[in-house]
Design brief:
The complex is a heterotrimer of chains A (420), B (293) and C (293). Chain A has 420 residues and is α/β, with parallel strands linked by helices. Chain A is 46% helix and 15% strand. In chain A, strands 1, 2, 3, 6, 7, 8, 9, 10 and 11 form a 9-stranded mixed sheet that branches. In chain A, helix 9 packs across helix 17. Chain B has one domain: Orthogonal Bundle (MetI-like fold), CATH 1.10.3720. Helix content of chain B is 69%, strand content 0%. The two termini of chain B are 14 Å apart. Classes of the chains: A alpha/beta (420), B mainly alpha (293), C mainly alpha (293).
Chain lengths: 420, 293, 293
């Protein structure tokens, strides 16, 4: 008897719940939202959950895509007419293309209508304005800093880096931290085999960007990297890193190198891996070193959250974009040690509250001037490939640095000529 | 009723003549070469196993540590929890089995027409089939996507099944094999009053077992390892295949290669089983029919 | 009904299941993609007819030129090497030796192993300072061994060797199937006539294997012209543009530069070249491909 009754009760409750669900589902606006690393990142689900809680009339349907193929997949989906409402523009190539094809809508009117405060985004915003129009709010905004392994500095009695270092200081210290020979050599520094790790020195000079500026700005930086890797041998060289599939995370966390310049995105992984017990590196961070005599500047990239210009739910989509790219989203991102686009003093405090975050590290996160790795421009994709190819040739000794720079100029001219 | 074992006898192969002393040394040399090449062929697989038992930080350690110091057997447990691996496995099996069967059916029928029936458009049509294989997938992706999107099939397994069940490759492979089947055989059957379909079913299919086994393996492997198709057409997590699921371990700034390799090793098991099951057909297919004679 | 009409009808009945799918999911996208060659298209907004402009741009594009010649280089080296290696493997593994099924499975492994594993293992083998290949070369007295993937000159040979190694097992399977199609009585007849092993190969095996050989060569040509993955995992087209191939550049123009018209135009050129080669091969096959019939 008792059993029967509980079964009936259960059925009634289930029916009631099912009805309640269908009832609410009918009222809700469903937004289709694309992003990458949704399941593994941990913070995007928090953002979506918080948004749905504060906006009970909206349901967000998440399209989680592999990070590497995100841009291609978004492109194909939009080309085929699949409706996405809101998504992240992962890189400048994707963003510029979307703007150029009018696939995402300008938000200036919505911004002024709702009185969105743009000051908190700082100068980053200028980097995503095209032809005087803004097409998205910065969701994440990362920039490069210098990570170092305090234990290794202590071991060799070398003073820690400071927030006012020059690249010459970096090179000298890398030498002092390097010991051993052959396979047992412990390097003072590590340079990730990406093009950006090699061209950012040039951009720091503030002589223009890689679309319009003269490539001679890259010379000193390439020389510096060449000296560090192939002359001083205080960092493994490009070819070695490339062929071994080296990754900064494994190398730094195994305590093998003293210094690593890398984006702020790495903070989250460092904190997370330490909590998982994967490493016990006693790390610190300072601002990027800069060239002697220049005002401090670093390099960064920004990820805007954008709205499909064909969305059927413009208002709801705007609410989601405003949430992800605004203060609410920034709070959640900062708690997860992700550098949001929206930054004020409370946001930075959230950042520092993380267990394992170095107490002296907060200053490293205050920026004066951030130059973008790539500005929005229709040819950023082709130019990026070209610059990458020439840098690799110079760093593997297949070409001299001067030759590589001259070829970059010539190839840029060709790219502009062929793509009028 | 016609019997296909009229031609062929116990197969005599090249190596079975190896009896003289010279041949024995040759045989020894062959073994040495085969073992040497097998070792290089096995290296990636050994690396996969070795990497799957390491922590992620140690995977790319150099020089390669072939035997992990502290084997992480837990990686093989973790993959089933971290992603919905069981579901991805099921989806992959479902897609692979359906597409492989569909290809065997449609391709063997079409190949029969191209190889053994004389009709005016035969050559032109066949060249058309081959020509489409030449066009790189990169430029076909969007037109194909638009078609399937208009059929309302995006985000379904049916999209992939329809895309991959009519492979020109399979038609070509089987046609080449059918061409070698003696025409007298078919003529004799026609005289016996067999319909074309009857000939296809009772003569061609049994005789082409080696080729069918080959196509089975190649299609199975292709669909099993396909990444681009599922990437483009499947959006929902519940539809994901193994290859798509494995990519969940690669995020924007890092990748968990230890888990990727553990999952890859697990995903290889059915492929190896299929290979071992099918290979007896592509070495023994015809002599089997000869035994009865 | 006229016999020829009946034949045609029968042929199309056999073709139909494959033909419908082929038309909708392969032929239409192929025609659309080739049509885009004469358009400007950004994947979203309406297409714009531009005549031959895309082809004119190609003539002045250094990246196209380099990728084109790299593709030719890759193909010319890969096709003969792969055909020979896989044929030798198939003959060695056909029948007779003990433990062959294991060897066969092992030689198929590179085709199914994870591409990451393949890349890692080969980067290790090619490592300039500590890799086994250069160690071996040094003991052989080569004082300055090549820097393989880091060198503009040696990167291409490096990916070619890796490519042959990776696909040998794949084509071996096709040859094995082809070997089964050779009727045994022909071998016996040859043996009775006093033919030795080489003669049996030269006058029985090789001629009767020509349909498979033809198939393998055509497929190999197509895959080599369309090579992408194996180069991408080893060198990403580098250093510089040393191993950049056409399909990689087509991908870049389509998805990085979003210039689908230009990408399609390059695909069209690739298509024409391969089509001509294929048609010539088909004409020639009448001279060198023999059938049991």
């Amino acid at each position: 008897m008792r059993n029967n009754r509980s079964v009936i009760l259960l059925v009634v409750v289930a029916l009631f719940l099912a009805m309640a669900c269908t009832a609410t589902a009918e009222e809700k606006t469903v937004l289709r939202f694309a992003c990458w690393d949704y399941e593994v990142s941990g913070y995007d689900p928090q953002l979506i959950k918080a948004f749905e809680e504060s906006n009970p009339d909206i349901k967000v349907e998440v399209y989680d895509m592999p990070a590497n193929e995100y841009g291609d997949k978004v492109l194909i989906m939009l080309a085929g007419g699949e409706d996405l409402d809101v998504f992240y523009a992962k890189d400048p190539t994707l963003y510029s293309g979307l703007v150029l094809r009018r696939q995402i809508m300008p938000i200036d009117e919505l911004v002024s209508r709702d009185g969105v405060d743009l000051v908190a985004y700082g100068g980053v915003l200028d980097n995503i304005i095209i032809d005087g129009k803004l097409y998205g709010l910065p969701y994440r905004s990362d920039f490069w800093i210098l990570y170092y392994n305090k234990d290794l500095f202590d071991e060799w009695g070398v003073p820690y880096p400071t927030n006012n270092w020059t690249w010459e200081d970096y090179r000298e210290t890398a030498k002092q931290l390097t010991h051993g020979e052959g396979a047992n050599r412990k390097h003072g520094a590590y340079i990730q085999p990406w093009a950006s790790s090699y061209f950012l020195f040039g951009l720091q000079k503030g002589q223009g960007d890689l679309v319009e500026g003269e490539y001679s700005m890259l010379k000193d930086g390439l020389e510096l990297a060449y000296q560090v890797q192939l002359v001083d041998k205080s960092a493994a060289d490009y070819a070695t890193n490339q062929s071994m599939g080296s990754h900064y995370r494994g190398i730094f966390e195994r305590g093998n190198v003293g210094m690593l310049y890398m984006g702020t995105w790495y903070i989250q992984a460092l904190v997370y891996d330490a909590m998982q017990g994967l490493h016990d590196v006693n790390w610190g961070i300072v601002r990027m070193p800069q060239w002697e005599g220049l005002e401090h500047a670093t390099i960064g990239n920004v990820t805007p959250v954008v709205i499909n210009s064909k969305t059927k739910h413009k208002e709801a989509a705007w609410r989601l974009a405003k949430f992800l790219g605004g203060k609410d989203g920034a709070e959640i991102l900062a708690k997860n040690q992700i550098m949001p686009g929206y930054v004020d003093s409370t946001i930075l405090e959230r950042f520092a509250e993380a267990p394992g975050f170095p107490p002296d590290g907060l200053d490293a996160l205050v920026t004066k001037k951030v130059y973008m790795e790539w500005p929005p421009h229709r040819l950023v994709g082709l130019l990026g490939n070209m610059v990458n190819e020439e840098i690799v040739l110079a760093m593997t000794g297949n070409k001299s640095i001067d030759e590589a720079i001259a070829d970059m100029e010539a190839r840029r001219e060709e790219i502009f000529m062929l793509n009028p | 009723m016609f019997e296909p074992h009229r031609f062929g006898n116990d197969r005599v192969s090249l190596t079975s003549y190896a009896r003289s002393p010279k041949a024995v040394t040759a045989k020894g040399l062959l073994y040495v070469l085969l073992i040497a090449s097998s070792i290089t062929m096995l290296l990636p697989f050994l690396w996969m196993i070795s990497a799957s038992l390491k922590t992620n930080l140690d995977v790319f350690e150099f020089p390669i540590q072939w035997v992990p110091k502290n084997p992480q057997w837990s990686n093989y447990v973790e993959i089933w929890h971290k992603i919905d691996f069981a579901r991805y496995y099921f989806n992959t099996i479902k897609l692979t089995v359906i597409i492989t069967l569909a290809q065997l059916l449609t391709c063997s029928l079409a190949a029969y027409a191209f190889a053994k029936i004389d009709f005016p458009e035969r050559n032109a049509l066949f060249v058309g089939y081959i020509a489409t294989m030449i066009v790189p997938f990169q430029v076909l992706m969007i037109p194909q996507f638009i078609i399937l999107r208009n059929l309302g099939l995006v985000n379904t397994h049916l999209a992939l099944i329809l895309l991959q069940s009519f492979s020109p490759f399979g038609v070509f492979l089987l046609r080449q094999f059918y061409l070698n089947v003696p025409n007298e055989l078919l003529e004799a059957a026609r005289i016996d009053g067999l319909s074309e379909f009857g000939i296809y079913r009772t003569i061609m299919l049994p005789l082409s077992r080696p080729a069918l086994a080959t196509l089975t393996i190649l299609t199975f492997v292709f669909v099993w390892n396909d990444f681009l198709g599922p990437l483009i057409y499947l959006h929902s997590p519940k539809l994901r295949t193994i290859q798509l699921g494995i990519r969940m371990f690669i995020s924007q700034y890092s990748a968990d290669y230890a888990l990727i390799m553990a999952a890859s090793v697990c995903s290889l098991v059915p492929v190896v089983i299929i290979f071992l099951a099918a290979q007896k057909y592509f070495v023994e297919g015809i002599s089997f029919s000869g035994l009865k004679g | 009904m006229k016999p020829s009409t009946r034949k045609r009808l029968t042929a199309y009945c056999f073709l139909l299941p494959n033909l419908i799918g082929f038309l909708v999911f392969t032929l239409i996208p192929v025609v659309a993609a080739l049509g885009l060659s004469f358009m400007r298209w950004d994947s979203y907004n309406p297409t714009q007819f531009v005549g031959l402009q895309n082809f004119r741009i190609m003539l002045r594009d250094s990246s196209f030129r380099i990728s084109f010649w790299n593709t030719i280089y890759f193909t010319c080296a890969t096709v003969p090497l792969t055909v020979i290696v896989s044929l030798v493997l198939a003959l060695a593994l056909d029948k007779g030796l003990k433990g062959l099924s294991v060897f066969r499975a092992i030689h198929f492994f590179p085709h199914i192993a994870s591409t990451v594993a393949v890349a890692v293992v080969w980067q290790f083998l090619y490592n300039a300072d500590m890799g086994p290949i250069n160690m071996f070369l040094k003991t052989m007295g080569v004082t300055d061994p090549p820097r393989w993937t880091a060198s503009v000159t040696w990167a291409m040979p490096a990916v070619i060797i890796m490519g042959v190694w990776k696909s040998a097992g794949y084509y071996m399977i096709m040859f094995l199937a082809g070997l089964q199609g050779i009727p045994n009585h022909l071998y016996e007849a040859a043996t009775i006539d006093g033919a030795n092993g080489w003669h049996r190969f030269r006058y029985v095996t090789l001629p009767l294997l020509t349909p498979t050989l033809f198939f393998v060569i055509i497929m190999n040509l197509i895959y080599s012209f369309k090579v992408f993955d194996q180069i991408y995992i080893m060198t990403q087209g580098g250093p510089g543009r040393a191993t950049s191939v056409l399909v990689y550049y087509i991908y870049v123009q389509a998805f990085v530069n979003q210039n689908f018209g230009y990408a399609s135009a390059m695909a069209f050129v690739l298509f024409l070249i391969l089509l001509v080669i294929t048609i010539v091969q088909f004409r020639l096959q009448e001279k060198w491909v023999q059938f049991v019939n």
